[in-house]
Amino acid sequence: MIYIFDGSLTGLLTAxxxxxxxxPGNVVLKTFETFQPEAFTPNLNIIPDVEKSDRxxxxxxxxxxxxxxxxxxxxxxxxxxxxxxxxxxxTIYIFQNDVGAEANYGNEHVIALAKYAKSVEREKHxxxxxxxxxxxxxxxxxxxxxxxxxxxPLISNHFKNxxxxxxxxxxxxxxxxGLHYNLNTVEEISxxxxxxxxxxxxxxxxxxxxEELYAVLWKDYFKSSxxxxxxxxxxxxxxxxxxxxxYLTEKx
Amino acid sequence: MSDRIREKLNILADxxxxxxxxxxxxxxxxxxxxxxxxxxFSGICHTYTEDGRCVSLLKILLTNHCIxxxxxxxxxxxxxxxxxxxxxxxxxxxxxxxxxxxYIEGLFLxxxxxxxxxxxxxxxxxxxxxxxxxxxxNGYIHLKTIPGASEELIKEAGLYADRMSINLEMPTEAGLxxxxxxxxxADVIKPLEFVxxxxxxxxxxxxxxxxxxxxxxxxxxxxxxxxxxPESDKDIMYTAxxxxxxxALKRVYYSGYVPxxxxxxxxxxGTQPPLLRENRLYQTDWLxxxxxxxxxxxxxxxxxxxxxxxDPKLSWAIRNMQHFPVDINKADYKMILRIPGIGVxxxxxxxxxxxxxxxxxxxxxxxxxxxxxxxxxxTCVDSPYQIRDYQGTQIKAFILADSQSKYLKTASNQLIxx
Lengths: 252, 418
What we know:
The complex is a heterodimer. By secondary structure, chain A is of the alpha/beta class. Chain A is built from eight helices and eight strands. In chain A, the strands form two sheets. In chain A, strands 4-5-6-7-8 form a five-stranded mixed β-sheet, covered by helices on one side. Chain A has a three-stranded parallel β-sheet with strand order 2-1-3. The N and C termini of chain A lie far apart (50 Å). In chain B, strand 7, helix 7 and strand 8 form a beta-alpha-beta unit. The longest helix of chain B has 24 residues. Chains A and B meet through helix 5, strand 4, helix 6, helix 7 and helix 8 of A and helix 1, strand 1, strand 2, helix 2 and helix 12 of B.
């Protein structure tokens, strides 16, 4: 049996609800995008239902501590098709066993979630580290990013607490939405960019006049703090994977 | 104007780069004044230099003018280099603007000693006070204690800094006397002790009184230069261990000496810094702090130096085969931590997972155990039956044969004839 859902968290939790209602035995969860009809396997379309998903989520909240709810949510944000299937089976496993079952690292779904969550947390941490704001002429600190996983919901508070006295925008260019902090709250925004604008590194005329100076000073600093006789390119690339270089002022 | 600030930054960042500490962890300063900055408990490395070291703080000297002439230091009086000094405002401006762009976690401020210790310490204090009080900056500040500065100044600095540190420079008193006759370990111990007493005092007050200001919340650290003088690894780690114990240090850093002078008392210019040795010392430090090893177990009169070809944990295991094999499904956590190929996270997962059933090899691999290494030291449910009892040296050979150490090339003692 294949369950097909729309990729939303509501859809995923609804799928769990449906499974318990029907108990159809062995089920694989797929999204509409990854679903390929198979000749002899029946399938079921899951219609996201807020009421059903809320019930499942409340049940999970009763059975899992905060750290595991976070692992659950992070795994979902990974947007990896297999992760959805693991989340589905993990939830069923948690409901079918005594409280505390999530500590069973010998279970394939438990270990899978721990792994996805770790990757997503790493990406989140890297965004906190590698984001470089540019001070625009209208006073907002802007950055465009395209992380592997959908981490904006995870980094919102970090930047809100940190930059309480400056307006900032973090824009996910891949998922086409962003966060804007207006000195009071963080709001979700979408920007319609004009054709030809470099969203990663907007033109110098859009920038505050001092922006270039600080970028240069930072590049200088990066160079001066290197010890040439200890050069270790392998280690450098391991810590700062090349796919992130386009974010980094010092690597441009 | 901008050219001058660029030149200053180049000189004073270059002079500060030999200070190893880059940690921004342990800070607990919250942004509760609608200012700038909020400390991340585990710290954040914002980038890494091409030599692979973390850049988390703007690490600079206030000045590289210095009245001392320590042989191992680039800023020594007799060295013919360009000198510069930042103004207080320049440091504050750089820190704030770098932080606003998310380049850094905060400031690491050290200084050459100009005029005298108190004069220098006062300048450092001016910078941190301006950042905290006028700019409402809540980022991380690591401040170097200037040896010989008065206790009032040190105590006041501790109210604004997150971490303070003071370098031992050489692992032994004799080594230090050789290269910096004007200095001694006592100059370091006194302020370390003073700050430590205050940390304890402030913590005790906090239990009784609600609003006690923070005092050096991220603790103290120190660093030693390795390989400039002929100390053994045992000398180095015993000193480190004693400092951890006596002053509750958060970290001891080991800095492989990078030759910067032609003096005959030290390795000549162009000698490679002892990177592998430095790495082994850090591994030992880790074993002491997170794995429950006593320094005497790893280094002693029979083994005064760490192995070059294998890490200290494996080395200990091979010398102590009587403790192995360990039954993964029964042994206590402390013993599981001592198995080569198993780290802290894997050990914790094993202890949790085995409550649900005995663990098998494939499960251990998924948990993250380096099984190829660990297999010589463990048994689990489906461990293959083994007739022979291998000697430590044989196991070492097995492990070396299927590992590809990045150091093998450089560590080879074999002469190459052709």
